[in-house]
Recover the amino acids of this structure.
């Protein structure tokens, strides 16, 4: 049961950290580039909220990959592959949106999605190693 709780906490913190990084980058770029005319806090809050909502299916897939490979010594590589694939799928969905939705910033938005997801997993690398060593005992 403790392993299950650690898994849930692990995927939840990856999800929150990725949404936070995502929202921070969006807010900085949108305010510096005058893409939106909102306050920085408003831009950050909206980006954080929508990042959490729209990334929920991806986090569920990441959680399944994590559970299926929790005893695998290559867990971090598997998670990075899963995050990268899920990020690319998100980028394809953004590409399929009408052009006026993202106002021609498709490449920038895609980069932020991929960067925040991979950074979040990499920041959890130490926890991943401790989780793997405790699951083998």
């Amino acid at each position: 049961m403790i392993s299950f709780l650690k898994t849930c906490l692990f995927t939840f913190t990856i999800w929150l950290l990725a949404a936070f990084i995502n929202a921070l980058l969006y807010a900085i770029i949108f305010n510096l580039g005058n893409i939106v005319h909102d306050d920085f806090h408003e831009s950050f809050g909206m980006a954080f909220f929508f990042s959490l909502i729209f990334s929920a299916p991806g986090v569920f897939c990441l959680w399944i990959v994590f559970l299926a490979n929790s005893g695998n010594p290559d867990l971090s590589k598997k998670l990075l592959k899963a995050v990268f694939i899920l990020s690319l799928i998100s980028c394809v969905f953004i590409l399929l949106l009408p052009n006026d939705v993202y106002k021609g910033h498709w490449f920038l938005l895609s980069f932020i999605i991929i960067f925040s997801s991979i950074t979040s997993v990499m920041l959890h690398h130490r926890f991943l190693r401790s989780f793997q060593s405790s699951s083998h005992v």
